[in-house]
C-alpha cells in the first residue's frame, strides 16, 4: 500500500509537474541553441529519414518498424510523422528533452524523499544539467534522454538487488535490461560489461548456492529480446538477419565504417586494455565526483560495492565498444555516468551542510572536466556541437540537399529518387508521399526500362564525392549507398533524356520532368525560359 501511495504521489505532486515543465523548457533551449547556430546531428537526420522512408511503402504497417533498430525510439518518432513544420523537424530533439526532463523530475522526487531542501535540489539539478556529457546526450537528437532514464533505473535496480536480495530484485534488473535493448544500440556492451561485476552486487549466499541461476535470471529477458528479434528478421528477410544487421549504416555497425576518419578508433580501435585505461582516465577527468561518492560511501559497504561497480562499468563498456570498432568517442558511452551519479546521490545518506558544499564543488569541477575531455580526440560532430554551443555560427547544413528538399516539397508529383543519396532532402521535404524510393516496386520497375516513365526523376552528379565530403566538415558522415538512379541512367545528369526536360539544377542535384507532366499545384522553381537557357553538358 505504501509503495502504491508513493507511486501516486510522484505523478500527482504539483511540484513534479513544475520541475518537469521548467526542466523541459531549459533542455529545449539547450537543444535549440546549437540548432540556431546551424548545428544539425547527422545521425539524428539519418534516423528520422528512415521513419519517413518507411511510410513510402504502400502496405506500410506499424509493426514494420521492428525492422528499424532501436525499436522503441523509432516508434516514438513515428508518433510525430503526422505533424508538420518545425515540430516535425525537431521531433528527435523534443522526445529526448521530454525524457531528460522526466529524469530530472524523477530525481527531484527522490531527492525530496531524502529531505533535500528545494534550494539544494535546484543546485544539484543545475550542476548535473550543465555538464557537457549530459547536454550532449540530451541534445544530440539520438534520444539520449531516454537512455539516461533507463540507465538511472538500471542503477537503482542494481542497488535494490544489494539491499533486498529477493527474487523481485533479480526480475526487475533483468526486465530493465530487456527493455533497454529496444532503447539503445549500446545495450549489449553495457550488459556484457555488467556481467563480471555481478559478484559485487548479487548476494554472496545466492552466488555460492547457484551462480548460474543468478546470471540466468538477469540475462533471460535480454536474451529473449535479442533472439526474438533475430528470428523475426530471419523470417521476413530473404537475406537473413545477419546480412541486414551488418549492412553499412545500420545501428549495429556503429562507427565501424568510419574508422579511418575517427581519431579515437584510429588510436584505440581493436584494443581492449589500452582503450579501457584511456576510458577510465577520461571518465575520471569528466566525473571526478565519482571519487567523492566512493569516499562518502566508505562506511556503507553495500553502496560502496555498487558505486565501485559504477566506476568501472561504463569504462569497461566503452572499451568493449571500442575494441569492436563501434564507438566513435568515449563520451558516447560515458555520458550515461550522469545517471549513475544521480542515482548514487539519492542512495547515499543526505549530506550535511559541509559535505553538501563539497558535493556541489565536485559536480562543478566535473562539468569543467567534461568540457576538457570532450575536446580530446573529438569527432567532427562533437567539434561542431561544441562550437555551436559556444555561440559560433556554423556553415549551413548541406544547403544543396536542403534546397532540393524544399523544391520537392513545392513540386509534388510522382518522383523517382534514391533515398540513400537524398535522405537529407527527404527529411527537409518532411514526408515520402508520392515518392518512388529505391525499395518500392515502382522504383524497381523503372530501373528495368531504358527510359523511365516517372513524372519526375532526381539525379545526382556522378562526380560528386561519395561519402559527402563537403565544406560542412571533413568527416565522412553516414555512409549511404551511391545514387541508384545515377548508376542506372549515368548519362542523364549531363545529357538529359528523351521525353524529359530540366526543371531544377542546383549544386550536385538535377531534376528532370516528363514533358507531358505538370506539377499538381502548378508551382515550379524554373520558368520555361529559364529551363531552356540552362546549359547541359
Defining traits:
537 residues, mainly alpha, 61% helix, elongated, disordered N terminus, disordered C terminus
Give the topology.
Elements: H1 2-12, H2 14-36, H3 42-54, H4 71-78, H5 85-89, H6 91-113, H7 118-129, H8 132-139, H9 144-164, H10 167-180, H11 187-194, H12 198-201, H13 204-209, H14 211-236, H15 241-245, H16 263-268, H17 272-286, H18 289-296, H19 301-323, H20 331-334, H21 337-347, H22 353-374, H23 380-389, H24 399-410, E1 415-416, H25 423-429, E2 435-436, H26 441-447, E3 456-460, H27 484-488, H28 492-495, E4 500-506, E5 509-514, H29 528-533
Helix pairs in contact: 2-6, 2-23, 3-25, 6-7, 6-9, 7-22, 8-9, 9-10, 9-19, 9-21, 10-14, 11-19, 17-19, 17-22, 18-19, 19-21, 24-25
Protein name: Glycosyltransferase RgtA/B/C/D-like domain-containing protein
Keywords: Membrane, Transmembrane, Transmembrane helix
Transmembrane segments: 12-33, 90-110, 122-155, 167-183, 214-237, 272-295, 307-327, 333-350, 357-376
Distance between the termini: 78 Å
Poorly predicted ranges (pLDDT <50, ≥5 residues)? 1-8, 466-480, 525-537
* Protein structure class: mainly alpha
Please report which band the strand proportion falls in: under 5%, 5-15%, 15-25%, 25-35%, 35-45% or over 45%: under 5%
Q: Tell me the helix content.
A: 55-70%
User: What radius of gyration results from the CA coordinates?
Assistant: 26 Å
Overall, the morphology is: elongated
Number of strands: 5
Rounded mean pLDDT score: 81
Provide a count of the helices: 29
- The number of distinct structural domains comes to 2
Largest sheet, spatial ordering of strands: 2-1-3-5-4
Largest sheet: 5 strands, mixed
Protein name: Glycosyltransferase RgtA/B/C/D-like domain-containing protein
Keywords: Membrane, Transmembrane, Transmembrane helix
Transmembrane segments: 12-33, 90-110, 122-155, 167-183, 214-237, 272-295, 307-327, 333-350, 357-376
